[in-house]
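Discrete fold record:
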Amino acid sequence: MGSLRFLKTLEERDELVTAVLGFYTEGRVHAPLQQFREGLSVFGALAAMEEHCDVLAPVFLADQKVLCASDLVTLFVTRSFSLAGSNRKRAELKTIAYWRDWLLQVEDGASPLSLGDVLIFSTGLDKIPAMGFPTQPELEFLHPEDGPAMFPMANTCGPVLRLPVQPTFPKFESAMDMGIGGAIQFGIQ
């Protein structure tokens, strides 16, 4: 603020605090806010925002919705299936069923992980963005015959989540819990 003022009483301190707050909220931020308003009004966006604020509020405000398993099921699409009728396709369909069941367990608290942990592992974000992802998150499969595929892997740039193809649900559950849980612990010092 650039003010040099000697304080002798508590009332003077309160006056200074009020003056500083006024300076920052009305003085320093006023010009950038005005410029922002002018920019929005160029194409009529400001008028639309003021008229339809209830519709546009989720775009600009933080989402308070709790993440649920069905959100993750619908978020991830499976684009790469093996040939129809093959053993690999049967294993992939079983893995998708395991994935959905496991997400329900995570949602119910039967896993040490949260759905936010799963989303962070697979996309790098703890919430689904209001405008969605630039590219649709995908599920791919890690078959044992293709190489080491014990734990899930993710590419957050894509975003792609690679699920391990396991013969039973308990093995799938263990692989997911250990793989994602271990990744969470990796960054902690």
Remarks:
- DSSP finds eight helices and four strands in the chain.
- The mean pLDDT is 86.
- The chain has two domains: 10-60, 69-186.
